[in-house]
Amino acid sequence: xxxxxxxxxxxxxxxxxxxxxxxxxxxxxxxxxxxxxxxxxxxxxxxxxxxxxxxxxxxxxxxxxxxxxxxxxxxxxxxxxxxxxxxxxxxxxxxxxxxxxxxxxxxxxxxxxxxxxxxxxxxxxxxxxxxxxxxxxxxxxxxxxxxxxxxxxxxxxxxxxxxxxxxxxxxx
Length: 172
What we know:
- It is a single chain.
- This protein is 83% helix and 0% strand.
- The chain starts with a helix and ends with a helix.
- The radius of gyration is 28 Å and the shape is elongated.
- The chain is mainly alpha-helical.
- It folds into 2 domains: 8-63; 94-167, C-terminal domain of DFF45/ICAD (DFF-C domain) (Dna Fragmentation Factor Alpha Subunit, Chain: A).
- It comes from Sylvia atricapilla.
- Residues 64-88 are annotated as: Disordered.
């Protein structure tokens, strides 16, 4: 980078070369720097893609879990919230309740499964557990619903991209 920035005439004098050769040298060095930057950007893009795949797999497993096995847990949650208003603490873990209270945008820090649990809570029970009014709890549930919906759309988009890329690989 330093050699590229040095004025051509100064570098030609120091190296006892013609300015034309120095121009070729500086152009070559600039090409090397450009190629390195492109490689760095390519690595970053690949890393982001791999992280997106990991996130997709994580979200898919969490989305698939509630449909497969945890029916018993759902029954416990349903019966727990119907018995008393304070049962929101049994349906949502203390960690989830703490995140809901302390974070400015808790829907962004919760995983998809926790978002679903927040959505299943009765707004009054959630408000009681958090010490909030019912409107604030309903607004939180709306934000959680929007975030979960966004995540599911991302998963669907990634599935679509994956199936499109698999289709291209199988062509001649």
